[in-house]
Write a structure and sequence with these properties.
Largest sheet of chain B: 6 strands, parallel
Shape of chain A: globular
Strand content of chain A: 15-25%
Radius of gyration of chain B: 25 Å
Number of strands of chain B: 12
Mean pLDDT of chain B: 89
Number of domains of chain A: 1
Oligomer: heterodimer
CATH topology of the domain at 45-296 in chain B: Rossmann fold
Radius of gyration of chain A: 21 Å
Helix content of chain A: 25-40%
Number of helices of chain A: 8
Strand content of chain B: 5-15%
CATH superfamily of chain A: NagB/RpiA/CoA transferase-like
Strand order of the largest sheet of chain B: 1-10-7-4-2-3
Low-confidence stretches of chain A: none
Low-confidence stretches of chain B: none
CATH class of chain A: Alpha Beta
Helix content of chain B: 40-55%
Bound molecules: iron/sulfur cluster
CATH architecture of the domain at 45-296 in chain B: 3-Layer(aba) Sandwich
Mean pLDDT of chain A: 95
Largest interface: A-B, 81 and 103 residues
Chain lengths: 247, 472
């Protein structure tokens, strides 16, 4: 078996004997990512309506369904309408702490079977399997959003306690709730925020996965015919809440 | 491709492909569509050109310190609780992965589309060890059921009709299947959903790995990458050493151009970034995370003639625009990586002799350089490769002598004019339809895999001379 030392020294040998083809530099990383991230957020706070409009356009362009409500209390009505139109009942949701609001009672009152995911580590393999099975048979998955990228119509979700990866993956219909605080304009800005999460700033959650979701799951593998929902959700809804969710 | 198929000369494989009417049509439709989608995506993205230059610069800068970036990556993956393995050869990579599978008691492995695992022929090794590999990308799933190989880097099953897929599904899955893409996709979703939930082992490639953070990045449209990295208890990512990028800031530059070049999307549907195994508080994610770093011929090219090919993102854009690929499709190339870049990658992984015919399967038109998001100069390397094949005496001696003679002629105008006249007379018995399809004696080796253009009845020089007379 090749060891790390052998492997790296082979590379080093090549690198040392090879002058670069041309002088080149990697991208300039922000020096103080958290500070730069704050600046970006402050600037964005002033022009969020334009950013939101751009996001809506791109999100709809990738077959996302956009909704807009005034306050978080109005979200359950939208969710239950989506459910009823699809004759769906079972819903898994991120924990209220991860969503920023407890919508389970209101959703339950509207006739949905609501399965909130636990806030902390579910004890033991059996319990994890049980929760995963619920996500696998649910019709709807309700999540929050950590970034909404206007340039590409993308939702960014960070995994962690109370915010399982499966909620946005296994059910055929994913519904994400967001507000102006997560809107960003460009992939370049996302780069700065990711650097900040990883560096001197604070990530939204401590899980091992960051997922960029740009519309519903799709394939064109059979005769180039565009088909949605091959493995992931067939539908993705984004509900924009005008009044910031966490007040 | 089987050994028997590989034993067939390239010319015959290519001929076969060109006679397959459906394949021909599918290739034309697919590549034309991809070209249009790519063009539109960049047309609406004025900053694209500068980002392409920047992406290329990042690749070059990373190669100049690859040892350092890999060490950073390794350190971070281990800090996060992952394990890193080092594979000098495909055989070593296979045995590392089979060992992990055995040790963890895995019986089924779900795979998301990965050219690196195709390259090391992992499925055969897993099967031999009693572990069932399941390809989960729809196109890969189809060709796995059909026991074939991918024909396009990003659309592996474009050579199959929906009728063929329906037939395949009914036969292999023992259930009725209508020849309708939507219905067929639904069947695959159901079948594969079971596998995702049952499998013990998830195997992926990696589109990128971020050194700074120990992040492995997977780009998919179907969501299988997310399934494979979230549901099984063990995740193994197999990655060529050249896939590392220094930081998230660099990563964003690549993400901004990758999907646009491949399918014309602004981003693929899912970009999944995973950093080590499941963390405290998480419901899903593997208990074990393994990263297998693959050499397989790449490291020698850091200082070798194919260095530029190490910047390849595997987007497939150069395939779509290549006049040769568009005619013959992926299978005719005979190796894992098709198309113009595939010839270079094959030379890198299998050695130059493997491409002694393939090196000529390019018109050197340069369309690939234009399309390539990182502007890899494929034709330049193909020319170098042809020369190397020649210098290493891989080409037959007759060919080498013939080219030496030609070089002489080209340097001596009088001799050249004389030879053209002599050739015009001597070629008479062999030329037909404006080509020489077969030469006698030992020259036959040359025309076995290609046509020779005959000397024109009036050479350009002769025409040029008489035009000048006319003008004067
Ligand atoms: S060589 Fe360039 S165009 Fe071809 S697959 Fe690689 S990155 Fe894409």
């Amino acid at each position: 078996m090749t060891t790390r030392a052998e492997f790296i020294s082979r590379i080093r040998e090549q690198v040392q004997k090879t002058p670069g083809r041309f002088s080149a530099a990697s991208a300039r990383r922000p020096q103080h990512p958290a500070a730069e991230a704050d600046t970006i957020r402050r600037e964005l706070a002033e022009r969020w309506p334009e950013t939101l409009e751009a996001f809506r356009r791109e999100f709809e362009g990738v077959a996302g369904v956009f909704h807009r409500v005034a306050t978080i209390d109005m979200v359950p009505a939208v969710v239950s309408r989506i459910a009823h139109e699809r004759e769906a009942r079972e819903l898994v949701t991120w924990h209220s702490a991860a969503l920023g609001a407890d919508l389970a009672p209101a959703l339950g009152a509207r006739g949905l079977d609501v399965h909130p995911m636990p806030e902390s580590e579910p004890g033991g393999v059996a319990e994890r399997e049980r929760l995963r099975a619920i996500a696998a048979r649910a019709d709807l998955g309700l999540t929050g959003v950590d970034l909404a990228i206007a340039e590409t119509g993308t939702l960014v979700l960070v995994s962690g306690a109370g915010r399982p990866r499966s909620t946005s993956l296994l059910p055929p219909c994913h519904i994400a709730v967001f507000d102006r605080t997560v809107l960003v304009e460009s992939l370049r800005q996302v780069g700065v925020l990711l650097e900040a999460w990883h560096g001197d700033g604070r990530p939204p959650a401590a899980g091992a996965a960051i997922n960029f979701i740009t519309g519903p799951s799709r394939t064109a593998d059979i005769e180039l015919t565009l088909t949605r929902g091959v493995h992931g959700p067939k539908e993705v809804h984004a509900i924009f809440v005008e009044q910031p969710i966490r007040g | 491709m089987s050994d028997a198929e590989l034993a067939t000369p390239f010319r015959q494989r290519a001929d076969g492909a060109m006679k397959d009417a459906f394949l021909q049509e599918a290739l034309t439709i697919a590549t034309t569509k991809f070209i249009g989608l790519r063009r539109d995506a960049f047309a609406g993205f004025p900053e694209g050109e500068a980002l392409r230059d920047q992406a290329r610069a990042i690749k070059e800068a990373t190669l100049q310190h690859l040892d350092h970036h890999l060490e950073t990556l390794i350190g971070n993956v281990e800090r996060l609780g992952g394990h890193v393995h080092y594979a000098a050869t495909p055989a070593e990579a296979r045995s590392i992965i089979v060992d992990i599978a055995r040790r963890t008691g895995a019986r089924m492995a779900v795979k998301s589309k990965s050219m690196a695992t195709e390259e090391i022929h992992l499925n055969e090794a897993l099967e031999a060890a009693g572990i069932t590999p399941v390809e989960t990308d729809l196109g890969e799933y189809i060709i796995q059921l059909a026991h074939e190989r991918p024909s396009h880097i990003i659309a592996p099953a474009i050579h199959k009709t929906k009728g063929q897929v329906a037939e395949l599904f009914s036969r292999e899955l023992k259930r009725p299947a209508e020849p309708d893409p939507e219905a067929l996709t639904r069947i695959a979703r159901g079948e594969l959903r079971e596998k995702f939930l049952q499998a013990d082992l998830g195997i992926t490639g990696a589109n990128f790995a971020v050194a700074d953070t120990g992040t492995v990045v997977l780009v998919t449209n179907e969501g299988n990458g997310r399934m494979v990295t979230s549901l099984p208890r063990v995740h193994v990512a197999v990655m060529g050493v050249e896939k590392v990028v220094p930081s998230f800031t660099d990563l964003m530059v690549f993400l901004a151009i990758l999907a646009k070049s491949a399918t014309g999307q602004k981003l693929s549907v899912y970009t999944s970034m995973v950093q080590g195994p499941r963390r405290a508080g998480e419901l899903e994610g593997p208990d074990e995370f393994h990263l297998v770093l693959l050499d397989g011929g790449r490291i020698a090219q850091i200082g070798g003639p194919l260095r530029e090919a190490l910047s390849c993102l595997r987007c497939g854009a150069c395939l779509n625009v290549c006049p040769v690929y568009r005619q013959i499709g992926g299978h005719a190339y005979g190796y894992t990586y098709p198309g113009p870049i595939g010839i270079l990658l094959t030379a890198m992984l299998e050695g130059a002799p493997a491409v002694k015919d393939l090196a000529h399967a390019s018109s050197l038109c340069g369309a690939c350089v234009e399309a390539c998001p990182v502007r890899i100069d494929i034709p330049r390397m193909l020319i170098d490769l042809r020369r190397e094949v020649d210098d290493k005496k891989i080409a037959p001696w007759t060919e080498r002598v013939a080219f030496k003679l030609l070089a002489r002629l080209l340097q001596h105008p009088r001799l050249y004019r004389f030879a053209a006249k002599a050739g015009r007379i001597m070629q008479k018995p062999f030329a037909s339809d404006g080509r020489i399809g077969r030469l006698p004696l030992f020259f036959g080796e040359w025309t076995r895999t290609r046509d020779l253009p005959p000397v024109a009845s009036r050479t350009f020089q002769e025409r040029w001379a008489s035009e000048k007379d006319l003008q004067a």
